Structures are given as C-alpha cells and as structure tokens.
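Async update (no meeting this week)

Hi team, since we skipped the sync, here's where things stand on the single-chain job. The sequence we agreed to prioritize is pasted below, unchanged from the tracker. I ran it this morning and attached the output directly underneath so nobody has to dig for it. Comments welcome in thread, and please keep replies under the output.
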Amino acid sequence: MRMSELQNKTVINLVDGKNIGNIIDMSVDEKGITTGLIVEKKRFLISFFSSNKELTIKWNQIEKIGEDVILVNVVY
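Output:
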C-alpha cells in the first residue's frame, strides 16, 4: 500500500467513534520500518491551550486498515 492511498482514508477512533483527522506523514525508525502514522488533528480535538496540532498513532494502535477507513484505538 502506498502512502498516497493511506492519506485518502478517514482515521476513526474506536474509543469514541470520532474522526481523528487526516494522515499527513509516517514515522519510520532508523531501520526503515514504519512505526506509526502522523495525523493532523481535526479542529474539535485541538485543545484551546495546546499548540500540538499533530497526533502520532503508533503502529500497534491501528486495529484495521479498510478500503475507506483506518480504525485506531487511541486514548487521549
């Protein structure tokens, strides 16, 4: 699967059913192994006092990559 295909999928959190945001990048370790996805948070998830607009979803938090959505299990 290509990064461009992942970017077109909706990221849904199984904990609360909300759309987390859009994939903007991947995190890769020094061996070239994908360790997670970098998601640009939706506006409603960004705290008024927080400047962090990105969320890193670790690879082990990804439950399922489907045709249209990526289901993740993230507690924030």
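Quick observations from my side:
The chain has a mean pLDDT of 87.
Residues 3-72 form a domain with the SH3 type barrels. fold (CATH 2.30.30.240).
Reply here if anything looks off.
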